[in-house]
Amino acid sequence: xxxxxxxxxxxxxxxxxKNLLPSNTLxxxxxxxxxISKRSDRKxxxxxxxxxxxxxxxxxxxFSQVDLLLELVDAWHDEEKYIINIGxxxxxxxxxxxxxxxxxxxxxxxxxxxxxxxxNNYEMKLNVSYYNIVGYLDTKKMRAKYPHIDxxxxxxxxxxxxxxxxxxxxx
Length: 171
Known about the structure:
Oligomer: single chain
Order of helices and strands: EHEHEHEHEHH
Radius of gyration: 16 Å
């Protein structure tokens, strides 16, 4: 059985992922004093999560998700573990009009995707992936912002993310 670590577990997709994982899952968010935008907190997260087999990077804070990924890869590259980075289809989005918030979010997630692709060019035991969410997740925040569109099920997306890991490896 895998041991899991998860960032951004208090609401939305992270909350749904947490509900699917074992009760001994290590959860990190601002609500329990772990802020991925702070290097000192990322260092604590990596130290606490070292015994885990799977790290799900769901918390988003600008380029901090990229920083966390690269720091995790540095610590785990010789380990048979998984890092799943939650991405966004915004990396494929092209608007007709300039929208600063969308552009900056796109750049953050595109940087994460680029970092995942870059680290996967190296020979290592570590499995690093980018889970691309296609569409708007059915969360309170998105429903309030876009009341007239179709949403992607947050629960189904959480299930799909967990399924990408597969069965534990045999030694």
